[in-house]
Every structure is written in structure tokens, then in C-alpha cells.
Amino acid sequence: MSREPIVVAPGTTLGETAQLMRDLDVGMIPVCDGNTLLGMITDRDIAIRGVASQLDPASGVEEVMTKNVLYCFEDDPIEKAAKLMEDAQVRRLVVLTRDKSLIGILSLGDLATRTEERATVAEAVKAISEPAFH
């Protein structure tokens, strides 16, 4: 997992967040109050919920962030994290301590490059990549 991810506060503007995403070359940033995870802001949230709704770029990310965030705990088995990603068809998973403090983000790339569980990774990639509607 990527440890100590860059985060934004709920009042950070959409414009500042979009610039940060551009500069970091990322599409998702956790929204936190200290170490407490409040939600996630994605480039899609900014485009679909912000720009398409004609929100001012000075609006805070809390207006468009995703509040229900999928997560795993730092001591969960990798298979459990992969299964969560498969079931939700997501490529990234927030990693929390047992007291629910944010400590990292686990990506599909992390699974692919940092684990020997090739079957687990292959199954996760297949399930995540399948269209939701058949």
C-alpha cells in the first residue's frame, strides 16, 4: 500500500483539489479531519457533481465528496482486501488502523506488484474489470 497519502480538509476548494490531483497525477484524494477519514474526492466527483452542477470552483470538497468509503484494516489478510475490491469493482481501497485512522491506500497495482498471491491478483483484476451491466 501507499503509506501516508496526501489528504485534503473538507473546506479545501474544488479548484485547489483539482490542481493538486493534476500535480500529483492522481484521481482520488482522501478527505480528512486530522487522521479521521470523512470521505474521498475523485476527479469524477469534481467533474460530475461539481462542474456539471455548475458549482463554483471555490466551493469546498465536502459538497461533492463521496462519503461512504470502502476500506479495509491494516491487519486484514490480502485476500480479504482483494475480495472487497472485487465485490465493489474498485481499483483502490482505503487502509485504516483498528481505531479508524487513515494510514494508506491499497491499489490494484500494489496487489499486482507487491504480493506473491498471483491467483488472488488475477481474480481481482478480472472481477474489477468486468462490466457491471451485462
TrEMBL record:
InterPro entries named in the record: CBS_dom, CBS_dom_sf, CBS_domain-containing
Top-rank lineage group of the source organism: Bacteria
Name of the protein described by the UniProt record: CBS domain-containing protein
Keyword Hydrolase: no
The CBS domain, residue ranges: 1-57, 65-121
CDD domains xrefs: CBS_pair_HRP1_like
SMART domains xrefs: CBS (SM00116)
Keywords: CBS domain, Repeat
Keyword Zinc found: no
Organism field: Luteolibacter soli
